[in-house]
Write a structure and sequence with these properties.
4 strands, Alpha-Beta Plaits, Multidrug efflux transporter AcrB transmembrane fold, 3 domains, about 70% helix, alpha+beta
């Protein structure tokens, strides 16, 4: 079926739908739920011979004092039902983690001071600054001992290295006991002894977020450089980047609306959408700015037929993955396919309702950014 040429007549009206979609998406973006990769916590999983009611499992765990629980099922190997349960970081674990990070930083500072005094042939015990820093470190250690349920006194360890070892052991024991408690409760609730526990600490999740920020900034800078190198003109290049940003905004809005968590798989899907959006936007801009057959409106229409065909093929591919995720309950498949489907739908609006309209308006109003 031949697509109608939407750019005949007052094509500027086409911009209303994508702008409305972007505004709605901006409203829902703050509602995106962070997965355990980015907010820290514990991910427990187990294989079951039967399917349990997710709400019953959740209610049983809440009755034991747990909060912020997410339960997921999917079909594993050999016909086994696999259950995954996310636990938020408890207040006690979060406090211990914060104190541990501060202790580590102060301990490193103390070691630096110790080496500096050694180079000056000054005994650490005779330096007031060192003694003050050691006192602060011992105070943090006592807080850690108290929070982790141990009765040691930091002043019993005059050596900072020994104190650091004792603190590490007490924190490790505290985390092990907490994870063992979760494992025991899950074995009781699920009726299976084969429960595995994986914990993402606040420090590790902070590193994930840091890496994500670097990836986003790096990809944005590289994309901008490549786009400006291709077109060598300001407005067309900015419009290409605008289309990619709009795609991501719409996809993230869908994540907030439908409860798709931000995890490493969904983040990878967002990066993939940037590449796909740049592909369709570059196709559009090349077709319109390159001197060729027909008017600018015809060239936009011709580019739209190719672009929509590309989007349709990609949409059907990810729709198949989405159906598979529903059948198998594999959360990774669901997060990738759901984000991709939302982004591909958004790409149709952003590219052909926003980018194409602005580019066509620029050309028809005398834009001189043409390619030979």
């Amino acid at each position: 079926m031949e697509l109608p040429n939407l750019f005949m007549g007052d094509y500027r009206l086409l911009i209303v739908a994508p702008l409305a979609l972007i505004l709605v998406s901006l409203f829902f973006i703050p509602h995106i739920r962070l997965g355990v990769d980015f907010k820290s916590g514990i991910l427990a999983s187990a294989q079951l011979d039967r399917q349990l009611d997710a709400e019953s499992v959740k209610a049983a765990l809440i009755s034991k004092g747990y909060s912020g629980i997410q339960v997921r099922y999917y079909q594993g190997t050999l016909g086994k039902n696999v259950i995954e349960i996310e636990f938020e970081e408890s207040a006690a674990m979060e406090k211990v983690s914060v104190l541990r990070d501060k202790f580590t930083a102060d301990y490193d500072t103390l070691l630096t001071m110790q080496l500096d005094l050694l180079s000056k042939n000054i005994t650490a015990g005779q330096d007031a600054g060192y003694q003050t820093a050691l006192g602060g470190l011992q105070s943090l250690a006592n807080q850690l001992f108290a929070e982790s349920g141990h009765s040691q006194n930091a002043t019993d360890y005059g050596n900072a290295n020994v104190l650091n070892t004792e603190v590490s052991d007490s924190v490790r024991q505290f985390n092990t006991q907490y994870e063992s408690g979760i494992k025991s409760d899950l074995e009781l609730v699920l009726g299976t002894p084969s429960v595995s526990i994986n914990r993402v600490s606040p420090n590790l999740s902070a590193r994930f977020i840091e890496r994500v920020v670097w990836v986003v900034v790096g990809s944005a800078v590289l994309s901008a450089v490549v786009i400006f190198f291709i077109f060598r003109k300001g407005i067309p290049s900015l419009l290409v980047l605008t289309g990619a940003v709009s795609d991501v905004i719409i996809a993230m809005g869908a994540m907030g609306l439908f409860g798709i968590p931000l995890t490493l798989p969904s983040f990878a899907a967002l990066l993939m959408l940037i590449g796909f959006s740049l592909d369709t936007d570059v196709l559009l801009t090349m077709r319109v700015l390159k001197i060729g057959e027909g008017t600018a409106r015809y060239r936009v229409y011709d580019a739209m037929k190719t672009g929509v065909t590309m989007s349709t093929v990609a949409f059907l591919s990810f729709l198949s993955l989405f159906v598979l995720s529903v059948m198998t309950h594999i959360s990774t498949y669901y997060e990738i396919s759901a984000v991709a489907l939302a982004g591909l739908m958004g790409d149709i609006f952003a590219t052909w309702g926003l980018n194409a309209v602005l580019l066509l308006y620029h050309v028809e109003k005398g834009g001189k950014n043409k390619m030979v």
